[in-house]
User: Which sequence fits this backbone?
């Protein structure tokens, strides 16, 4: 632990949502203090953090003060404005580093990067206008899905193209933003691997979980996932390959489609991931602590799982079910402290533990 | 959940040490905000709480503002000044209630209360001066242990009397405070039960843990404890009896001596308890969340255990072992964020999980 931060050091976290909140609790458990940078007030992370800088990502003065208050900087989301990172990385270590952000902030760059590594990805092509969209459709076939290259999450900035007739509307949905067309992959189910890489280059992965989405939002993750021993090993090995190639430090989520021809990488997220929430009740060291250990230069937990878990997201009105869920045995509630319930908003999750 | 606090409500916690810290994290997990009342600055609980009132327990104005900021009040230690409680309970519900504090704040009252319930306790007698000490020794025999009636913890305010020669020094150690002499109990080992009682009167207990002390301070708790099925059932039943008799709301720790003649109650603590820290990594709902559920009027977790756990306290210089402990598999670190390491000071604990 030569480069390890001592307990009592301060971890800076960009973003004050539920991921920042659970990172902050994990950091406290290791004796660190935490400092949240988040423009919004009363944000979930601020409830469990030492300090909250409430300022815009364009506020250079606030960014400088934030950097001066912390020993290392990490983040809960990948779409941090480039100008903020340009400044911060001159002041304090930012982990994971810029390469992971550069690759994952742009779907086209990401797909190209993964394909160049020899990994299977969906057929894809860049789309700038009607003409390139036509060429892209010729390359990937239909149905396909048109996505903005940047700033998409939870199904936002996406449009399905089932037949040629859908093309104009899909293009209009992009509102002129650079886009990528992705061909459909014929998969049986989706799994994800939550992998971690330490400052010393060591890698540890949690067991793959099986994900079910609805309306573009993750609903459940079940561990263990339906995978053969060979698929399980492939999933973990390709995750390690990506982590090493990026010289990554921290936790990463890797979403994979399971097909008869093997695993196809859907996308990577350079941060703790919703599909890794099950680790809070299935592992001694969960994904949040694993991430903090990595960015603090501590040894990684081994990822060992001591229970089977089904994680279910609580979205919007699912909050009405909290009284009933609180009375369910073997069920751990994790609520995010968000003041307003909105349709599609992630309000919390439950982990159902099956020994 | 008629009287249940809704998520988003604020839990007030008197005391900002490690127990308040872990209560605060548990409250956040259920979507509550937390407000700590603690005279000390930079206290462990304030690192993970929404608000910290830094004021003395004699500061009526601060107590009033604290009460106005919260929906329910609980505490992490039993020695809260009576005047503060007198004021607070006129303003907001205080849980657990006064009866539990009245009984447990005074060792003589506590022993008498438990004995009156028909439970086995060590032989005891009140001590005010040299004369009553002599009479007490005649009643309990030697060796015995002289303790102040109030404000003792972690072996403080205690003196062993092995032979009559130790008597003057033991009495001097009490510094004139009212005391109690307790006869020795010939026990094979000590166990404790962490029990909880909800606002609706429901009771749930965690599996008994086996405790090892050194220098008057808890070192390890091992779960499961060495107990026969009958002893285990006795331990849980007598805990439920105490909880019901006190009309208790919250988590209580009950320490028991295991003797050939049965279980002898050592002491009760009207709060979450060091010997219940193992529940953080062995149960879906841990003792801290259980306490918050009770004081918030939520349903209790069932106390089910999904792993065997050995909890070890990190005391003083044990902090030097943190780098090595962080590299141990199946080991969960829980550090308290205390700035200064002192001999005998509880700095954190580890839970070693054995599936």
Assistant:
């Amino acid at each position: 632990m030569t480069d390890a931060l001592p307990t009592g050091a301060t971890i800076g976290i960009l973003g004050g949502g539920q991921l920042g909140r659970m990172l902050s609790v994990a950091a406290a458990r290791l004796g660190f203090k935490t400092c949240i940078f988040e423009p919004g007030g009363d944000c979930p992370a601020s409830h469990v953090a030492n300090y909250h800088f409430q300022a815009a990502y364009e506020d250079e003065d606030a960014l400088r003060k934030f950097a001066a208050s912390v020993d290392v900087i990490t983040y809960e989301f990948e779409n941090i404005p480039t100008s903020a990172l340009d400044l911060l990385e001159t002041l304090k270590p930012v982990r994971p580093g810029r390469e992971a952000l550069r690759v994952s902030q742009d779907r086209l760059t990401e797909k190209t990067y993964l394909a160049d590594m020899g990994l299977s990805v969906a057929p894809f092509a860049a789309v700038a206008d009607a003409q390139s969209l036509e060429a892209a459709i010729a390359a990937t076939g239909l149905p396909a899905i048109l996505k903005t290259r940047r700033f998409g999450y939870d199904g936002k900035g996406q449009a399905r193209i089932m037949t040629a007739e859908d093309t104009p509307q899909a293009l209009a949905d992009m509102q002129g933003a650079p886009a990528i067309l992705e061909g459909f992959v014929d998969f049986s189910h989706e799994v994800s691997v939550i992998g971690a890489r330490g400052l010393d280059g060591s890698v540890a992965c949690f067991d793959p979980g099986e994900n079910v989405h609805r309306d573009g939002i993750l609903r459940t993750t079940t561990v263990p996932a339906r995978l053969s021993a060979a698929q399980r090993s492939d999933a973990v090995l390709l995750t390690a390959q990506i982590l090493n190639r990026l010289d990554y430090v921290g936790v990463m989520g890797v979403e994979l489609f399971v097909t008869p021809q093997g695993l196809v990488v859907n996308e990577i997220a350079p941060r703790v991931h919703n599909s890794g929430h099950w680790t809070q009740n299935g592992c001694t060291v969960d994904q949040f602590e694993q991430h903090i250990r990595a960015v603090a230069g501590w040894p990684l937990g081994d990822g060992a799982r001591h229970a089977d878990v089904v994680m279910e997201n609580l979205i919007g009105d699912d909050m009405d079910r909290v009284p009933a869920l609180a009375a369910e045995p073997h069920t751990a509630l994790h609520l995010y402290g968000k003041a307003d319930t909105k349709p599609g908003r992630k309000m919390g999750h439950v982990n159902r533990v099956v020994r």
Observations:
- Chain B has a mean pLDDT of 95.
- Residues 10 and 33 of chain B are 4 Å apart (CA to CA).
- Chain B has three domains: 10-94, 123-183, 189-354.
- Residues 229-245 of chain B form the longest helix (17 residues).
